[in-house]
TrEMBL record:
<dbReference type="Pfam" id="PF08640">
    <property type="entry name" value="U3_assoc_6"/>
</dbReference>
<dbReference type="InterPro" id="IPR003107">
    <property type="entry name" value="HAT"/>
</dbReference>
<dbReference type="Pfam" id="PF24892">
    <property type="entry name" value="UTP6_C"/>
</dbReference>
<dbReference type="GO" id="GO:0030515">
    <property type="term" value="F:snoRNA binding"/>
</dbReference>
<feature type="domain" description="U3 small nucleolar RNA-associated protein 6 homolog C-terminal">
    <location>
        <begin position="277"/>
        <end position="547"/>
    </location>
</feature>
<dbReference type="GO" id="GO:0032040">
    <property type="term" value="C:small-subunit processome"/>
</dbReference>
<keyword id="KW-0677">Repeat</keyword>
<comment type="similarity">
    <text>Belongs to the UTP6 family.</text>
</comment>
<keyword id="KW-0698">rRNA processing</keyword>
<dbReference type="GO" id="GO:0000462">
    <property type="term" value="P:maturation of SSU-rRNA from tricistronic rRNA transcript (SSU-rRNA, 5.8S rRNA, LSU-rRNA)"/>
</dbReference>
<dbReference type="InterPro" id="IPR013949">
    <property type="entry name" value="Utp6"/>
</dbReference>
<protein>
    <submittedName>
        <fullName>UTP6 protein</fullName>
    </submittedName>
</protein>
<dbReference type="InterPro" id="IPR011990">
    <property type="entry name" value="TPR-like_helical_dom_sf"/>
</dbReference>
<dbReference type="InterPro" id="IPR056907">
    <property type="entry name" value="UTP6_C"/>
</dbReference>
<dbReference type="InterPro" id="IPR055347">
    <property type="entry name" value="UTP6_N"/>
</dbReference>
<dbReference type="GO" id="GO:0034388">
    <property type="term" value="C:Pwp2p-containing subcomplex of 90S preribosome"/>
</dbReference>
<keyword id="KW-0539">Nucleus</keyword>
Length: 567
């Protein structure tokens, strides 16, 4: 009865004139949950009769609901994918074929859906012919889609591998195949070769060639095909850093393919070192042939990857470090080192305790990227870490080179360093200077930091005077006012008169956009020993007048919760 009642209620909702997608989704979800429950009950009780009357009728109803929903909201891909997932879960192959057919007719502009349908045909229905047909149809709509070509190429190789296995099994069983015979061209992946040649004419770029090559490597009968792709790669993209990067890394793979039986640890380490030397020889040739920033980046990335690999051999680790630092230096001498790589170089030098070299590199980085705040920040952090005497001079130099907009990180770093190093007078002068040097939007952060530092170092009286003077110049942040309110609350004789002043100042700036500020003010009047609960009515009235749009509703609901003690 409960199931009937619920199903009837859901059915009524989808029979309305104004249909809602959520009603269909809720109905489908209910039916799917019911199916899962029946499945569990059957497993628990061992009762397997009347499946046609129970499960099949529910399955039929779910499919019809999905068909109505996808017919009404054709553009909702997620709805289609939910139907596909349901069909897969309940093994409705015939229905799924129809779903894919209808979905692809509507969403032919989405390559991922074509690939999904073709994969299902290939892997579940074991129909390579249907999968091929779908890929060819997809390529008519998307003739230059790399992903489609990659998956089509993979499918043809999978088909060839499947046929090779079948042939091998027939030969082992010594069965007479009669007139049926396997084409040697298909067995050797000739179809995949045709796909590759067609794709490489339409799709330019090394990334596609490398992706196809990585797919071909997964199959052990594609040596000739791999060779053709590799030759094409070298002939057509000889000036591309990615080609050289692949060719260099290939030396490692070729080295690891050699048989390594009965080898000692020492021998393995020497072989690894030799393989890496061969890679670096290719990279050295690459940076001579293609002297670009991207090429050096590939070389350095490779060296860093090898250096970060775990090894028990100290000798190999040291050799990797020396090689990496050498490559960084060469790239720097060629003036082809990016800002990010300078940062990595510095980090490596600091980790290796090469502090003098780190200072030199940081200085060189700021010469090459004088406008970059991050580079100056990096150099300053190195000097601070090494407790250098040139920190102040470097800060002055940084502020001179970098435009005023965006200097906040430098000022923040400078005052934080000064707090721990310089006298109170110097730090205060620096805070005052930072307020004038930064843009108005950035000075907001400095004001809050200044307030906090003054309270920690100079006490309540000084911070109260500073707050009053800082309030003369806009803009402000809400944190600035909240910090002062927090400082007042921390005093033994916390005066409501002062809190009222700070809240009023904050509300002048943020009263139209912040509901919590009003609620905190009301709460303060109610809970503070010197508070006046009779003021709450007027504060509430002002809040209703001042708040904008939906914030009024938000305020009313929160105020109600406050009154009932739930906030």
């Amino acid at each position: 009865r409960a199931v009937l009642r619920k199903a009837s209620a859901l059915e009524y909702k989808i029979q309305r004139r104004a249909l809602r997608k959520e009603d269909f989704i809720n109905y489908i979800q209910y039916e799917v949950n019911l199916l899962e429950l029946i499945k569990k009950r059957r497993a628990h009780t061992g009762y397997s009769f009347k499946k046609d009357e129970i499960e099949h009728s529910i399955l039929h109803r779910v499919h019809s609901l999905f068909n109505r929903a996808t017919g009404k909201w054709k553009d909702d891909v997620q709805l289609w994918l939910s139907h596909v997932a349901f069909c897969k879960q309940w093994n409705a192959k015939h229905q799924l074929s129809k779903v894919f057919s209808t979905m692809l007719a509507i969403h032919s502009n989405k390559p991922a859906l074509w690939i999904m349908a073709a994969k299902w045909e290939m892997e579940t229905r074991l129909s390579s012919e249907s999968a091929r047909h779908l890929f060819l149809r997809a390529l008519r709509f998307h003739p230059e889609c790399p992903k489609l070509y990659q998956e089509y190429f993979r499918m043809e190789l999978m088909h060839a591998e499947k046929q090779r296995k079948e042939k091998k099994e027939f030969e082992q069983a010594k069965m007479d195949l009669g007139e049926f015979n396997y084409s040697e061209e298909i067995l050797n992946g000739e179809m995949a070769r045709i796909v590759y040649r067609d794709a490489s004419q339409k799709i330019k770029g090394v990334e596609f060639q490398l992706a196809v090559l990585s797919i071909a490597k997964l199959f052990d009968f594609t040596q000739d095909l791999q060779k053709e792709i590799l030759e094409s790669l070298q002939a057509r993209y000889a000036d591309d850093p990615l080609t050289w990067d692949y060719m260099a890394r290939r030396e490692l793979e070729l080295g690891s393919l050699q048989p390594t039986e009965n080898t000692t640890k020492q021998k393995k380490v020497s072989e690894m070192a030799q393989n890496e030397e061969r890679c670096c020889a290719v990279f050295d040739e690459a940076v001579r042939a293609v002297p670009t920033e991207d090429m050096w980046k590939c070389y350095i990335t490779f060296c860093l990857e090898r250096y970060n690999r775990k090894t028990n051999s100290k000798e190999l680790k040291q050799k990797r470090l020396e090689r990496t630092l050498s490559v960084f230096s060469k790239a720097h001498e060629s003036s082809l080192l990016s800002e990010v790589l300078y940062k990595q170089w510095l980090q490596l030098l600091l980790d290796s305790n090469l502090s003098e070299k780190a200072v030199e590199v940081a200085e060189a980085a700021t010469k090459n990227f004088g406008q970059s705040v991050e580079t100056w920040q990096m150099r300053l952090q190195v000097l601070i870490q090494l407790k250098s005497d040139d920190v102040t001079q470097c800060f002055e130099e940084a502020i001179k080179h970098v435009k005023s907009k965006g200097t906040l990180p430098l000022w923040t770093l400078w005052v934080e360093w000064s707090e721990g190093t310089n006298s109170k007078e110097d730090t205060e002068a620096l805070y005052q200077r930072s307020l004038h040097a930064t843009t108005p939007a950035e000075s907001v952060t400095m004001k809050k930091m200044y307030l906090d530092w003054t309270y920690r170092n100079c006490g309540y009286k000084k911070v109260k005077g500073l707050f009053t003077s800082l309030c003369e110049n806009r803009p402000f942040s809400l944190d600035f006012f909240m910090k002062m309110i927090q400082i007042e609350k921390e005093q033994e004789s916390c005066k409501m008169l002062h809190l009222r002043e700070y809240y009023e100042r904050a509300l002048r700036e943020f009263g139209s956009t912040n509901t919590d500020l009003w609620l905190d003010y009301i709460n303060e009047e109610l809970s503070h020993p010197q508070g006046k609960p009779e003021n709450c009515g007027s504060i509430h009235w002002r809040a209703m007048k001042m708040l904008q749009g939906d914030l009024v509703e938000d305020f009313v609901s929160k105020y109600t919760l406050l009154q009932t003690g739930h906030l």
